[in-house]
Amino acid sequence: MAVSFTVGGARGAFDARFAEEVAGVLDHAFGAEGEWEGTPPLHYGELADTGWSELQHRAVDELGPEMIPNLTALGEDGRGVYLPAQVQTASFPLSAGEPLKCASLLGLRNELFELAQRWQLPLDDQGLEELLRVAHDPDDGCVADAPEILTYARLALAANEAVRRDCPLWLVGS
Q: If you count Cβ atoms within 10 Å of the first and of the last residue's Cβ in the chain, which end, N or C, has fewer?
């Protein structure tokens, strides 16, 4: 299953009816979703089928599960939202499909910082974009970097933008 990243409100990540339900659930739980809805969504592409779970597995191996509660909160399918607040991981029932899994965007950024230090990877936009650009190189791409490194780069780039915009970061499976 592929996972895509979107920065913005629920209405930019989902179709109208489902977006209304998700926004309502978050409004009720956290009282701030309405403020995020005016921000146009930015889409950060789609990940390969295994990139998300490989990132989680390698991060657990490197740091231990207790050090990355936000990265692992959305499960191996990578569906849910990172909210721009200090929130505990939570799950909320929805009328259709799986529950909405929520975690802290700020906590995720701290965990990505730890991974960046451990793996000697950039966390700034320019360095992350360079990692992704090299991955598209016909001579060195995809062989040069493991899927979890490319997933890290795309996730960190989207997280940087979500922090700048003070908006949720949605991970949506297809």
A: C
What pTM does this model have?
0.89
- CA dist 72 and 53 (Å) reads 9
Helical segments of 64-174, H only = 69-73, 105-119, 125-135, 147-165
Are 22 and 6 in contact by the 8 Å Cβ rule? The answer is: no
Return the DSSP state at 67. G
Model confidence at 98, in pLDDT bands (50, 70, 90)?
Answer: confident
44 phi and psi angles, rounded to 5 deg: -110, 30
CA distance 74 to 82: 9
**100 DSSP 8-state letter:** E
